[in-house]
Amino acid sequence: MPARTMRAVAVLLTAACAAVSAQIAWTPIFLDASSQVDLWTQSSSGCACPGGGEDCACCVRDGACPCGDVAPTRCSQCGLEQYCSNMCNITIDSRVLKNKSGKTFGQIKSPSIEGPGACSYVLQPDAGQRVEIQLYRLVSVGRFNGSRITEKTIRSQFLAFFSFTSLSNTQGVGFHPRGGSRIPHTDCDWLYQDVSCRGSGTCVLASPGYPGLYPPHRRCRYLFATNSVHTRVKIIFTSIMLPRNHCATDYLTLRAGSSPSASLLASLCSERIATLEQPGPNLLLEFNSGPLVPPYDYNGFIAKLEFLEKIDTSAPPPTVAAASPPLAALTHLTHGERNALAENDAAANEISTNKGGHIGCGATVRGYGAGGIRSGHFDTRTTAWRSQCVIHLVGIPTDVVQVSLFNYNIRLQSCRSHIEILEGLHEFGARGERGDRFERGDRALLRVCGPSVREARDPSGRFLFRQAVTSKGSNLTLLVRRATTQSVDEEEFVDGAFAFYDEQHEGTVSPDATCASTHYGLASPAHGGVSAPSHHHMFWNIEERLMCTHRFIPASNQSVTIEIQHLDRMWSAEQTGSVVTGAGGCRTACGDAGCECRAATPLQHHDHVALVAGDGTHLSCLCGDFQAAWLPVVVRSWTSLRLEYSVAHYTYASRGFDYAAAYSFNDDAMCGQRTYTTHSGEISSRNVSVTGSLNEFFYQQCTWVLDSNVERQLYIDISSEQDKSCSSWNITLHEWSGMGAHSDGGLAASAGDLLYTFCARQKNHTFTLPWRLNTVVIRLVALSRQQPLYTIRWRSQVVRANNRLGPPTPVPAASAKASRFDHMIINYLLLFLLCGFIASEYCCYKMTLFALGERF
Ligand SMILES: *[C@@H]1O[C@H](CO)[C@@H](O)[C@H](O)[C@H]1NC(C)=O
Ligand SMILES: *[C@@H]1O[C@H](CO)[C@@H](O)[C@H](O)[C@H]1NC(C)=O
Ligand SMILES: *[C@@H]1O[C@H](CO)[C@@H](O)[C@H](O)[C@H]1NC(C)=O
Ligand SMILES: *[C@@H]1O[C@H](CO)[C@@H](O)[C@H](O)[C@H]1NC(C)=O
Ligand SMILES: *[C@@H]1O[C@H](CO)[C@@H](O)[C@H](O)[C@H]1NC(C)=O
Ligand SMILES: *[C@@H]1O[C@H](CO)[C@@H](O)[C@H](O)[C@H]1NC(C)=O
Ligand SMILES: *[C@@H]1O[C@H](CO)[C@@H](O)[C@H](O)[C@H]1NC(C)=O
Ligand SMILES: *[C@@H]1O[C@H](CO)[C@@H](O)[C@H](O)[C@H]1NC(C)=O
Fold it and tell me: Ligand 5, atom 2: nearest CA belongs to which residue?
């Protein structure tokens, strides 16, 4: 507890000097009567002496004890009697004092000393207490040059009151912050929200202990959070006094986001006053203090906070589409609707020119053409009042539209005021079709009935879970129906964000996820690119981890190649929050098994880009100190692959980092899921084109089923020329355990118990499977810098070489094998002759058994 101890006369002195301009409220100290000698002495004589005798001081009734022989005419606070004659170099412990005298306040009366000299006083508050000191007399203290007293003095003395006051006592000394709320479990952190700072002067903040000296080695954070997209935060520092030339330890910073790793907007140290103004949604002011610096002529800062509702013309796009497509193109609309749209266009253009591009009632937003916009914010308050407010969002045919609502206030009861988000484009007559409304309501993607209020954040400043919808088609209508006139005290409004997603290029949007899409090999273009999300407007109300995923699902005769081509420097959020982990950041290590993110703390605390297999295996991961020379990182995969873009602490102002990746779906049928019913055959790897990148990896998970409905003895030869470790790729043989649900949704053969493993080092190996194991699953798993090269050949022996009463064949010895094969060939020939007449495998099976003399 750094604040437990306050030390030294000098500290007391200068703290008081710095505060001259402010009127300090002082916790009143109890006095027994107005005519008493001092705080504890009622009168200097007239009472019995402790050791006998009648003419000693009379003490205050409560909490005072006689000084005894050293000063018979004085009393002191119980617990401090031993210092009656010399109150120098002492410690006053709040708990002890309370125990002995029943009081949490008292008086310090220094001895009269010859300078230069020093007496120190340590005041030790209990938990939950602060220390207040009031110096009311100071005599001949000499000159202090910052490190020592430079002047000889005589009879130097001071008198002071002190009080251990509860922290919850707001009547006491000094400044009290206004309008903010303490962030629980922190030393000195505060939250200020726009909703609690309406009106000037309602929100004031200051360094701890202001206007006194602030405690050393502190870090206090002041988070400013806005609920509206347009709100700007104005911080007016009316006084800043930090020690001179200590800017490395004593300073203020303002950051664009709620995290201490967010980008720096301003840094203050030597300024005396300052005014900063920045847009929301989150700003973090951080105050840092170093060691105490003599001559203690500083006292921190005090600032007023204002939240300004400002429509910012320099804000990032949106701009309303300037060049509209010819209205004639909108063939499905009736003449009336077209006129209505034309009017809306006019209105929209008016908005774009007059209101700084903010989208309000009557706007038609186009996601295409010159000046078309792909995402933006809307707010019904940016346009003149209309009881019926309609916003049209028109995309290209392959688009879907997402709308997220941030704040709204819908007042009229029984749904007379409401918000609806409707699929497609709708026009509404000025009178409003009441009958039609409910029918339409059923078709609404989202309907909010009045009375209803939503604020983007909860009282603790946390953004609420998003309220968003995704269209099925390319057009969306937002309708707000409200009272015919605007209420004076409470406007009915809605604000939020929208974005168009071109599913053809950006993948199929996951409606429930914040930022996820899927690219299907058969439906998406064969080549394309993905990059960091550009629909930032939608993420305005995210101030935590942002994870965006692109899932690539190749068809069974395809593979997918993903090439991370460009990557920006990434921030890591290790220092986030009040926890300083001390653990290093995230390191990227590229080796034979791909690039790996190595971090002491969970990966979600670090910005990263990862390529992840369907089963969650990280095939490649880049974070922290990756080097541009390692790019491109390429993964070619024969099963589904997920590109994960993760920003540890996203804020609208900081927006994470950029990357660019190219993908291509390749036609290559060598992997995927295949079933072979022939009794012999060969599967071999085929050369695929390589990019030649240093960090190219192959991820293959191929499953082949060798299936037969004839009882057989199966031999599988596997060979490879490669000298690779087993962990880079291997082929396993499994029993068959039926069809199971595949992670990509389809059915896939489930591999049962493992029978054998083939590693490339083995060069070639023949596996003899148990008799009657007619169906086996062969699985290739590879994660390797080189494409695995292999040949798998199989052959079946459908008759038993030994007589039919014998036991199943043990694994044959090499020589026995050859003769058995001769035997087998003869049997095969026989069978072929027989089966040639009957072109049915089933018959053939029966015939085989017949030929072997089995019962059937
Ligand atoms: C207070 O006094 C009592 C008895 O005099 C003692 O037992 C106790 O430990 C004291 N507490 C403190 C905090 O000094
Ligand atoms: C008080 O302590 C200071 C240094 O800590 C010392 O120089 C001084 O002599 C002490 N005074 C008395 C009266 O003990
Ligand atoms: C204070 O005075 C002492 C002795 O004269 C000197 O050594 C010291 O540097 C001075 N300190 C300052 C801050 O001027
Ligand atoms: C969306 O609106 C445009 C313009 O009105 C129209 O051409 C297009 O067919 C609409 N799309 C859908 C899916 O309704
Ligand atoms: C891949 O499979 C799909 C259907 O599964 C088929 O339409 C397509 O023609 C196949 N492509 C190749 C190259 O075999
Ligand atoms: C595959 O490619 C490698 C190197 O590109 C080459 O040496 C090898 O002969 C090729 N194999 C086949 C079967 O084309
Ligand atoms: C087989 O290869 C995969 C992928 O490289 C690897 O994860 C697995 O550990 C390997 N199995 C054995 C037994 O080495
Ligand atoms: C397997 O290895 C043996 C020698 O170890 C060799 O004679 C044989 O040709 C190899 N078979 C294949 C298919 O490579």
Answer: 557
